[in-house]
Amino acid sequence: MARKFFVGGNWKCNGTLESVSKLVDTLNAGAIVSTDIVEVVVAPPFIHLPLVKDRLRKEIQVSAQNCWVKKGGAYTGEVSAEQLVDLGIPYVILGHSERRHIMKESHDFVGQKCAYALSKGLKVIACIGETLEEREAGDTIKVCAEQLTAIKEAIGENWSEVVVAYEPVWAIGTGKVATPEQAEEVHAELRKWLAENVSAEVAEATRILYGGSVTAGNCKELAKKPNVDGFLVGGAALKPEFIDIINSAQSKVAA
Ligand code: PGA
Predict the structure, then answer these.
(1) CATH number of the domain at 5-254, please?
(2) Which candidate, 28, 54, 125, 224, has a CA 20 to 30 Å from the CA of 62?
(3) b/e code 196-229 from CB counts within 10 Å (16+ = b)
(4) Catalytic (active-site) positions
């Protein structure tokens, strides 16, 4: 079974009412390839979710960038999985490196968040990736495996609604993109990890996205790699070139 190409746009903590409205207009006007060959998701900040969900073309789905680890209640400043479901939001990004490193979310905490979000019916874009120091120490796969292990311990065999995003920390927002060969090497190892630690079926079916300085200029070569099933895009997701990144699904089909 072929894995459907997936392109996610992570808008992070950016945007005003005016700029978000303009970005929605740009995405609505762009010529995008058929959703038969690509699944597209954008993740605005919580505060803009209702506007984007209402106004964005229906071929593009909407995701949150985070959610609380359990049922809502007295957790000031948090947003629960239930609230996202209530709003009709299908996806949530969890374990983004900015949350792991700046907000100090641990591997276990991210795993628990994945389990809770899945239990409420959200689909999860689970992010993993190593720092430059870890890569230089030769620990890339070890670190990614630790992050995946914590997710597996929390969710078990239940990976059908999980998309994995491999995002090397050194490539995020730095303009230093992994080469297609570097991305492919890690993605192949991650798929092997899934086969050995979850199941061959899950390894075959799970989409593994690359994230970190993806642009219209570098996406096509990355997309051609057999284990690169799409992208999670930050900076370029705020620009019209996001349309070109969506359309790199065609390079996948042609490869
Ligand atoms: P970037 O961010 O594309 O700006 O490097 C990617 C991400 O953080 O998901």
Answers:
(1) 3.20.20.70
(2) 224
(3) eebeeebbeebbbbbbbbbbbebbbbbbebebbb
(4) 96, 167
| Phi-psi group of 213: left, alpha or beta (phi > 0 → left; psi -120 to 50 → alpha; rest → beta) | left
Contact (Cβ atoms closer than 8 angstroms) between residue 8 and residue 207: no
pLDDT at 154: 98
Nearest atom in ligand 1 to 237's CA: 3
pLDDT for residue 1: 56
Distance, CA of 173 to CA of 76 (rounded, Å): 29
Tokens 């311990």 correspond to what residue? 153
Tell the residue nearest (CA) to atom 3 of ligand 1: 234
pLDDT in tens, 25-80: 999 999 999 999 999 999 999 999 999 999 999 999 999 999 999 999 999 999 99
Taking residue 36's Cβ as centre, other Cβ atoms within 10 Å add up to 9
**Regarding beta strands 91-94 and 162-166, do their DSSP bridges make them parallel or antiparallel, or are they unpaired?**
unpaired
What's the gap in Å between 234 CA and the centre of ligand 1? 3
Rounded Cα distance between 66 and 44, Å, is 11
